Amino acid sequence: MIFMRFDLNPMMNPKSVAVIGASRDPSKVGHVILQNYIDAGFDGALYPVNKNISKGEKIIGQTAYRSVTEIKKPIDLAVIAVPAPAVPEVLEECGKAKVKTAVVISGGFAEVGNVELQNKIVEIAKKYNIAMLGPNCLGIMDPASKVDTLFLPTYKLSRPKIGDVSFVSQSGAVGSTILDLIAKEGFGLAKFISYGNAAYIDETDLLEYLMHDKQTKVIVMYIEGIKRGKEFIEVAKKVSKVKPVIVIKGGITEEGAQAAHSHTASLAGNSEAYEAVFKQFGFIRAKDLDDLLYFAKVFSSEDLPKGNRVAVITNGGGTGVLTTDAIYINGLKLADFSEETKKELRKVMPSIVNIRNPLDLAGDADEKRYSDALSIISKDENVDMIIVIVLFQTPGADSSVAEKLIYFKKNIDKPMVAISTGADYTQTHKLMMESSGLPVYDSPNAAASSLAELYKYWKYKNKIV
Amino acid sequence: MIFMRFDLNPMMNPKSVAVIGASRDPSKVGHVILQNYIDAGFDGALYPVNKNISKGEKIIGQTAYRSVTEIKKPIDLAVIAVPAPAVPEVLEECGKAKVKTAVVISGGFAEVGNVELQNKIVEIAKKYNIAMLGPNCLGIMDPASKVDTLFLPTYKLSRPKIGDVSFVSQSGAVGSTILDLIAKEGFGLAKFISYGNAAYIDETDLLEYLMHDKQTKVIVMYIEGIKRGKEFIEVAKKVSKVKPVIVIKGGITEEGAQAAHSHTASLAGNSEAYEAVFKQFGFIRAKDLDDLLYFAKVFSSEDLPKGNRVAVITNGGGTGVLTTDAIYINGLKLADFSEETKKELRKVMPSIVNIRNPLDLAGDADEKRYSDALSIISKDENVDMIIVIVLFQTPGADSSVAEKLIYFKKNIDKPMVAISTGADYTQTHKLMMESSGLPVYDSPNAAASSLAELYKYWKYKNKIV
User: Which residues from B are below 8 Å from A183, CB to CB?
Assistant: First the structure.
């Protein structure tokens, strides 16, 4: 049994935030962070802090302070964006002002060999009981509580809508690109946490926090190293029973591990040991950034299947062939349609359609044909999951087909994903379907591997080996 | 030694085209094809043929004929889009009119069990010595000669610009989606050939044709089966010595092979036998549609490397770590920078930058820092290939960095690719770089696996095992 080391609630849902290092200069990190809070419509108290201002001055319209100690009001979260050498003093002041939590954005600590300076700020955080995230991180983004410590402007990095996927990243770079992609793909975010050097709060604390977080349905992690192996395993044992954890590990090769050490001073450790732990406790492994997105999308929107039998409906024969290959390569199988299903399909399908799985609706398939196929096949008890291929290049495929798929997605209680590959016309329809909660993939392997992870996780949860 | 069975030149560069089944009804395939020719600005003679019109009528402004036999002029290519049962008669007339080549778009032959009808049209083609493509195919697109038999409208399927990649696809669906993606990714097409049931002209003929085609630098193939195994091997032996062939095989699993049989009546055959042939003769294997694009892009724009030592330049540490992993997983290695390189880098890089490979330029890297790094590293004799990671979410990365990368791409004689992951702001810059000939990938694995294929092909060509 583990007890959480930190109360992270004041960090994730703060009523009052001090931005230390706030500035009027738009090129400064402290400026961008303050502006983000204002733009996001943060409705708590906001206190810019900058030791170089005169008393009573304002920064971006907010009354500013020279030190957190001057604020004289409770502060849930201090976001610290001052040069590394100034961090100890600032943190000391936070302690005196009884600040509950701190996010240290500043870099220049263990990752560049400044271990001593890093140890110093950890000591201060401990002394004053401040839950400290970082240093050398992007911090937190939570579209629901409107916390946004990211110093990257919104025109460069799109912010996702509110959702149920939480993403914990040791790397700010990987974190920010994934955040940007989540926004692009049209699915939603619960919490984003970039934790950098993990000097105090680490991946185990964050994993445990998200395990209990009601808003979070799916946890996604990018990690380079694990600080407290034993404790991590304790949490890992429990978390996958509660919700899926998708993990990508940086530094799985020897040379990658060396690069990781130079990046966040992580000791990446033995790759096989990680692999064994992840496998034993039902973590979902992503091999690349693509996978991370593919899997997060399907776990966010789909329920778990009850088996590995897949029905494929397509308007392109070749794509149906490649999808069949991908299904078997990923450990799934084609469903055998029941006699009833075959009979019903034969009644409504034109004679050119072979009644088999994959069901090739032919190049002129329209919304009626898709609709007929889906309403019959979704009822078949031999079918656990459905892949619908819609190639929008063909004459019959248009918005009405996309709408029909969205309708069935909302009314079928089996996992269902789509494959649509192509340029502008396709992308428009892809976004239409994805923003309505239907996962759409560009390639057969992306779709099949995502469903395979759903199936494997279902087996893990139900102790089927 | 093989002699080409067909002269495909009149099909690929026709001076005169008859569209049989041309129609005034925009929903008809024959209408779309005729319109495509007109829209593309085809400058040869164009003859719409429709047996139901009255003499002297026009279709889309072109004088129409009731039969090719009425045209009384030489016809290089007949595009046939009439119902399957009418094809034999139409083809017979083509023979009498001495039409040189024919593309039979119409479906309804062996792929739906109508083997007899298919045999019949092959007999007619043989009798009159007509080089016949299809049936059950999309036909040909060639942006240079303005041949476009695709019946898919341009708003649904973007047409690529003129380039050096030729794509042969047994499946119309796979073909059209890839064509659409080629246009989206901003690289260019030499010839697109969808050959469907391969009743007469088959994959071996097309491969041999493209081997000799001067416009084609890279050949990409989607195949489900091979009709003439022995002859294919004869061509395969020669082609990879001349130019790279990227192949994706549909039906590599038993169930996929069954689906392929139902699709194009292909006997997919033993998967391991295909695998062995492809490997022996230096074909580049794509496992999924994604790969096909990734590899085509890099072979189209890059020269071959002279080794497997990769330099990585990045503005995101975590992405550098993942790229290092991907490099080793794909059989490449990190280059050891020379002492000279390290000394030069140390002179110009700020102190926060560790002089090592991957070279992490830090989150505030701007065009100057990228430029300094590239000009030094590109000269290092220990470096065979370069991966440049630009995360456009970061403060310093903007269009000037993209421009700098394009400049170096044009001035460095080593393979160089970029990784940029993200939404709108990133996509804009990605397109900017790709349309200037720099391949850009979304993920570390996509970039590393593409360079690995370049390296493997270089080894094949130089007989290094």
Answer: 423
